[in-house]
UniProtKB/TrEMBL annotation:
Pfam families: Trehalose_PPase. The keyword Hydrolase applies. GO terms for biological process: trehalose biosynthetic process. Its cofactor is Mg(2+). This is Trehalose 6-phosphate phosphatase. It catalyses: alpha,alpha-trehalose 6-phosphate + H2O = alpha,alpha-trehalose + phosphate. Belongs to the trehalose phosphatase family. GO terms for molecular function: metal ion binding; trehalose-phosphatase activity.
Length: 137
């Protein structure tokens, strides 16, 4: 989908997501809009130029790989828990875990040294850098 050439807008539309930037832009597939992916740590501008938060990338590059590998082994033993290693975050989805295992899952993601962001039936570890989707846009 494209916006008509020469179309004038008071505000340019934007797609904001916690998903990795490549994932959200390929799912939506609209040219001529801003994309903010990875909770605002990555952007694609109207001209297609890519920007990323280098400070955040440096803070998580190796530590999140290690965290994801360690937690993946733990969750394999628990069962019905999905770990999603994103570029700027590690998300733990436990909506399918049995109720008696939820406390074990939540306890295992605390104290990893990054910012926790709980949501219903999921937990996300992000860089300690305070940035939001609103800040990015």
């Amino acid at each position: 989908m494209h916006f008509p050439a020469g179309m004038r807008m008071a505000h340019w539309p934007a797609v904001l997501s916690g998903r990795d930037l490549d994932d959200v832009s390929s799912c939506v597939g609209v040219d001529g809009v801003w994309y903010a992916g990875s909770h605002g740590f990555e952007l694609i501008g109207l001209d297609g130029a890519h920007q990323q938060n280098e400070e955040a990338l440096g803070a998580v590059a190796t530590s999140f790989e290690r965290v994801a590998a360690e937690r993946r082994e733990r969750f394999r033993a628990i069962g019905r828990v999905t770990l999603e290693h994103k570029r700027f975050a590690v998300a733990v989805h436990y909506r399918n875990a049995t109720e008696e295992r939820v406390d074990t899952v939540v306890a295992s993601v605390h104290g990893v040294g990054k910012r926790d962001e709980p949501s219903p039936e999921a937990w996300c570890k992000k860089p300690l850098i305070r940035a939001t989707l609103r800040d990015a846009v």
